[in-house]
Amino acid sequence: MRKHIFNAGPSVLPVEVLKEASEAVVDLNKSGQSILEISHRGNTFESVVAEAKSLVKELLGLGDDYEVLFLQGGASLQFCMMPMNFLKETETAAYVDTGTWSSKAIKEAKLFGKVEVIGSSKAQNFNHIPKGFAIPKTAKYFHITTNNTIYGTQFQIYPDSPVLYFADMSSDFLSKEIPASKFDLIYAGAQKNVGPAGVTLVILKKELLKKIDKTLPSMLDYRVFAENDSLYNTPCVFGIYVCLLTLRWLKRKGGLKAIGKINDEKAARLYAMFDKHPLYVGHSEKEDRSKMNVVFMLSKPDLENAFVEACSKAGIVGIKGHRSVGGFRASIYNALPMESVEVLCGVMEEFAFRYDGAAVGSGSRQ
Amino acid sequence: MRKHIFNAGPSVLPVEVLKEASEAVVDLNKSGQSILEISHRGNTFESVVAEAKSLVKELLGLGDDYEVLFLQGGASLQFCMMPMNFLKETETAAYVDTGTWSSKAIKEAKLFGKVEVIGSSKAQNFNHIPKGFAIPKTAKYFHITTNNTIYGTQFQIYPDSPVLYFADMSSDFLSKEIPASKFDLIYAGAQKNVGPAGVTLVILKKELLKKIDKTLPSMLDYRVFAENDSLYNTPCVFGIYVCLLTLRWLKRKGGLKAIGKINDEKAARLYAMFDKHPLYVGHSEKEDRSKMNVVFMLSKPDLENAFVEACSKAGIVGIKGHRSVGGFRASIYNALPMESVEVLCGVMEEFAFRYDGAAVGSGSRQ
C-alpha cells in the first residue's frame, strides 16, 4: 500500500517517525492531551525544543559556540531575514548563483544592500557548480546554496571563505558529514531531511548575534529568537516535535557518517543507470551531481508519459521534474529506503529494454 | 484518560479532528503517503487550501471581495507585516491598547510609521475595554485586538471606523457570529479555535492589496501570498490540513451562530460561579468579559496551590493564570466540551464549600 516517495519536498519520512507522530496527535505519551493541544510554555515542550537543539548540534559536531533556532516561513523568509540582520545599504554580500533558490536569495538581499554575484551557472541552465571564483575580502558575507533541488547539483567541496560564511542547506541538511564549523550561519527548511513543512532551522555562531546592530521587527530579529530559546511567540509545535523524532531516528541510524554512506549508495545506484542506458541523460555535470536529487531527461522525450505511467504502476510518486528543467527528478532524501531506489532502478531497466532496446549504453552521458 | 484542556493556546481540538489528523499522519486517505509527505504543489493539497479558504469565507459570510491567506509566524509576525505593507513613515495608525498583544502590535507598528494610542486600559491592568474614544479620520488605519487572552476581556461591540479597519482576532476567531465585512483585514493565529500552532490566517479585502505601493521582501508582501494562493513557498501543510478538518467540524456543528450559542452557555456557566461564590473574583469588568478566556483570582490567595491541586485531581489542565495577572484562567475555546466546563464548575463549587464555607456569595464581584 505504501508508495515509493520521491517527492522533492515535503517528502518521505521514516515510517517509525510517522507512527509515533500519529499516536502523539491523539495522545502524547499517555498525557491525555494531543501534541496539537499542549502549551508551548510547559515543561513537556521545552524539553522537546532542548533535545532537538542538542541533537542538531551533536549530529553536526558543533559546540556551545553555536545557537540552534527554530523559525517559521521556510528558507524563503531567511532569504530576506539574513540580509535584514547582517547587511547594510552600503555593504556588499557575495553570492554564488546555482539556481532558482539562490537567485531568489540574491533578489531579496538586494533590498537591503549590494550584492555581487561572484559565480553563476545560469548560462548553462545551472547544470554545474561554478568554480574558481574569488570571494572579495571586503564582502560582508559569502552565501551559497549547498544543494540545488531543481537542477540536481551539489557543492561537493565547500570553498574557503575569508569573510562570514552563510549557507542555505535546505535540501541536503543532515544528509552527510560536513565541516559544519566552517559556517557562521546555516539555514534549512525542515521538509527534506528533518521533518514536515512549517519549521525552518537556523544554526548560527553565537558571536554573530553581537554583530547585529539594527533595530528590527521582533519576529525578524535573530537575537529575539536566541534570547527566547525559539519561544518568543508560539512556534510550530507539532513540526518541531516531528523534527525531534526524526533527529532521534537519525542518531539511531548512526548519525551523519552512516546516513551519508547510505545516501552515497542510493545515489550511485541511480546514477549508474545513466551510464548503462543511453535513454537516461543526466542534467548535472558528473562531478557536481547531487546525492539528494537525481535529475534526468529521456533521450527520447516522446516516451515521457509512458515512463511516468511505468513508475506509477510500480507505486512510485513524485518523479516528475521541475518545470525549469523538465524531464524527471528522483529525490532520495535520508528517509527514502534503498528498497524504493531498487524499485525505481528496476522500472528504469525494464523501460530501457522495452523502449530503447539497448542492453548496455555507451558510457556516461556527461 | 483524556484531560479537560483549558490551555490558553495551543489548546483543545475536537476529538474527531484529532482522530482524522492522526490517521492522515500515517496514510492520507489511503494514498500510501502521509499528509507530512505529500507535495504542496499537487492536486490533493491545492484542494485542501481551496476548501479551507472557501469554508472560512462561508462561515464568516464573506464574498469574493475578500481574500483568505495562510501564512506562518503567528499574529506576532502580522504585528510588523501589517504596518510594513500599509503604513508609511509620515502616516499615523490608530491603535487601542487592551493588553500584552495589542501593546506588542503597537511597538512593531512604530518601526514603520506613527502610532496614536487612542484608547488604553493599561492603568487598570487591562481589566476593561476602553470606550468612547475617537478614531481620527486622518489615520491610515484603526486597529483593535478583539479578545484579550491574558486579561479575559473582549470587544462585545465593534466600534465603527471611518478609516481602514484592522483586527487581531487570534483568540476569538470563528467563535461567534460577527459583522466580518466591517473589517478590511482580520488576522488570527490558528492555535485557539481553528487548528494547531504554525498557521496564521489573514482575511483581507482584495481592493486593499491595490493600496500596497512599497517594494517589500516577497515573504512579507501580502500581494505575493494572494497572487500565489498562499503557495509562493512551502506552507505549513499539516497545519493547514488540520485547519480544514476543524473548519469542516465547525460547519457540521452548525457554523458560527450555533458555536456562539454554545460558547455563550459555557461562559455563562463559569461566570455564574463568581456571583455565587465570593471566593472567585473576576479580573475583567462584567460588561467586557471574554467568552473565550475566563480570568479570575481567589479572594484568599493562599488557597491557590490547593485549588490547582483540586483541578489537577479532576483531570483539568491549563488553568494557571498568565504571570501578568496571576490567579487562574479557564480558556474555553470552540472545541472545549460543556462537559469539561461542568467538571471545572464542580471543582469550583466543592472547593468553595470546603475552604470558604460560603454557600451563596454576595452577588457580583465586579
What does this structure look like?
2 copies of one chain form a homodimer. With 366 residues, chain A is of the alpha/beta class. Chain A folds into 2 domains: 4-10 and 254-355, Aspartate Aminotransferase, domain 1 (Alpha-Beta Complex); 15-252, Aspartate Aminotransferase, domain 2, CATH 3.40.640. In chain A, 35% of the residues lie in helices and 17% in strands. Chain A contains 10 helices and 14 strands. Chain A has helices at 15-26, 43-60, 74-86, 100-109, 206-209, 222-227, 237-252, 255-276, 304-313, 338-355; strands spanning 4-5, 66-71, 92-97, 114-120, 141-145, 147-148, 153-154, 164-168, 185-189, 200-205, 280-282, 293-298, 316-317, 328-331. In chain A, the strands form 4 sheets. Chain A has a 7-stranded mixed sheet, with helices on both faces. The longest helix of chain A has 22 residues, at 255-276. Chain A is globular, with a radius of gyration of 21 Å. Residues 359-366 of chain A have low confidence and may be disordered. At the A-B interface, helix 1, helix 3, helix 4 and helix 7 of A face helix 1, helix 3, helix 4 and helix 7 of B.
Radius of gyration of chain A: 21 Å
- The shape of chain A, in one word, is globular
CATH fold descriptor of the largest domain in chain A:
Aspartate Aminotransferase, domain 2
| Tally of distinct domains of chain A | 2
Question: Largest sheet of chain A at a glance?
Answer: 7 strands, mixed
Tell me the name of the CATH homologous superfamily of the largest domain in chain A.
Answer: Type I PLP-dependent aspartate aminotransferase-like (Major domain)
The greatest interface here is: A-B, 66 and 65 residues
Q: What CATH architecture label of the largest domain in chain A applies?
A: 3-Layer(aba) Sandwich
Topology order of chain A in helix (H) and strand (E) letters: EHHEHEHEEEEEEEHHHHEEHEEH
Mean pLDDT level of chain A: 96
Uncertain runs of chain A are 359-366
Class from secondary-structure proportions of chain A: alpha/beta
